[in-house]
Amino acid sequence: MVSEEAGRGTRTARAELALKSLTVDLDPRERLRRVLELTLVFAGASVAAVYTPGDAGDVLCLVESAGVPRTLYGLRDGYPVAAHSPAVDAHRTGRPVWLGPDELAGCAESRRMPAGAVHLAALPVRAGAAAGDGGCLLVVTERPDGFDDSVRDCLALLADAVAWPAPPAAGDPGELSAGAFSLAMDSGRVEVGDELLELFALDRADFDGKVETLLGLTVPEDLPSLMSVVEADHMSIGDRELEFRVLQPAGPPRWLRLRGRLVTAGEGRAAQLVGTVGDASTLRSGVTDVARVQRLAAALATAGTVRDVSRAVVTALREPLRADRIALAELDNERLVVTVLDPPEPEAWPELWRLEWRSEWPESPVRSMPTLAAALREGRAAIWPAGTELEPALDGVGPGGLAVLPLPAGGRMAGICLIGWDSPHEFGTDERALLTAAAGLAGQALTRAHAFDAEHELVGMLQRSLLPRRLPKLPGGVAEARYLPTTEGLEVGGDWYDVIPLPDNHVGLVIGDVQGHNAGAATLMGQMRTAVRAYAVEGHPPDVVVSHANRLLVDMETDLFATCCYVEVDMEEGTAWYVRAGHLPPVVRHPDGTTEVTESDVGPPLGVMPRADYPMSLLRLQPGTLIALTTDGLVESAQIDVEDGLDALAAGLAAADPAHLGLVADALLAGANRNDDVALLLLRYDGMERRPLRESWTVWRVPEAVRHARRFTRRTLRTWGVAGEPGVQENMDTVLLVVSELVTNALVHTDGQVRLDLTLFNGRLRVAVADNSPRTPIRPTNLGWEATGGRGMLLVEAMSAAWGTVPVSGGKQVWSELALEP
Asked: What's the pTM?
């Protein structure tokens, strides 16, 4: 119980220290983003998002999110306060909501989430610029243990630290950029720049500052969509983009593009819509729907996941078509699996859909829906006007008109899209062409996104399985590691780290970076980590370990390369030899607090040159020395040179307290660049209070070799002062028997030199015999009474507290541990 409470307190203390590192002069939105990044670090979360009440208070609107794209887990832009959801429950009750996979299975949110061990937490937020309005912090993780007590305590602290940005204060018109505007949502007063007035063909002297004046100059057909942006009731918190037309004194209307963001109300101020308006006419041809197709193609080109593709289609079609609902589904064999429903509330869809609300289409088999089956079979869009009688599964989706769009891709149908209207809708020729073009683009994008999702899942599984799950306990030191995936692309890559316990109280530290961020990089990372560990365990020095890994990567004939830094630390002597293969140098913090970016020769990256030299460099360590190894994601970005980044890392180490290594790691990662993977490995060298006693003996191949080995063992133990101690003498016969059997086994079954090593530490004697044969001794399972041999290893196993064999430089070492204490 004490250790559990200590663990909970340590995580919270680390979070408190990291929060203190956030300077008070940070921009409010930047501070909020930093707090969410700390939430990812301390909770092991995939995504974290903050929601606050909108202007009318009937919707919890997204303010900021961090981590993987929230669409991967189905997190919405807003949650109606009147509906039931984890975010609303936490906001309404003021108590945290913790949902594991079982609880999520019975929740409406589950249909938006991927399969697997997904845990969701919703915590009420009370701090911030809009104090008293409340809010919610949503956190999603795929950690197998979910949110344990230590994580829950830490999340409570982070939720209290959340503060969302207030809207910018209204300023003079001259303070706005040329095309910018700021609209007060309560009064309708708008402040605009000079360029924006020119786009509306207005003089500043003639402009009365009312938004109605600007709306009156728009083309009447575009006014409803524009009103949906400038009316707070129709717009949730977040970014919006819209194109519309304004009338000109002479000539055709001009196309303008509005980019706006509705920000929350500050204390004493109303919510504001801020943004810019620019000329979009250069992007448009004479046919207005061509621009819509171009925008859809551009959006689909950057859509990575199936959900991203679905949302891009909804954004491109629903508003221009004035549609009331859009549904997209993937075709999986003979079943349709829904990827997006807009609007997402069940009440917006027919009664049958509400009764069978799940991830699959109601009455899911395609053959049960003739309308959809015919459209998929023919591969052509089907238009059904108002009043058409359709099967029950489609009845009510579009009472005023229904468009059924099969989504073709690569000679097959990837899925289907339904667009419905409540009021009678006329389908013009241009609109039919728009639907057909959009369907073709969406089908191809769905196929690409499905492959992306499959690769993302594979790479995520590889990343979790190939990195160490925990670090080993070390003699005379403590190690700590952190890994942060990139928030771009597949979000996983080739950064890796490892801590390798080696014989004789040596420790191998490895950090590396494989080129790329995809499944190939993650796979190669696992292969290189395994190879370096295998070469290190064989007993090779650092330069040989890295040289072998280089030759292996060259022989794999891959186009990827890797960088690596390998450090072998002698925990008894306080020395460390390290090798760099195109990687960053270790950064050292000395016991007096001074830091040093080590200078040493560096070899080429792994996989570039078949024969490359990797020179070794020496570090001498005093108790309290801290070694930091990292990848370039922590110290290099588009804004920071690697030299400046290393200096900043050294400064962070100098200001840290090495007594709490976890806090040091978290503080160093608090401002990490999330455009690349980040791996960090720390080792604090404490020194060993007691050192093992060691002696070695080269066994000669003479008839009395075994007797000489026993005599050497007896004399060594007497020199160490343990042979005559009470309670030890009765174990001496056991020790000598084990020595006899191991030495005899090596002399009889191998050729070449045989070496006997004795090590005494903490009352345990380790007897090790090394030879030149890689063959592991065989322990027979059955022995007859007439057998003349084969019992040696059975005796060793019976007499030893532990025994085994390890490869050593082309041969092997067979070892046995015995307790000398009574």
From this structure: 0.46
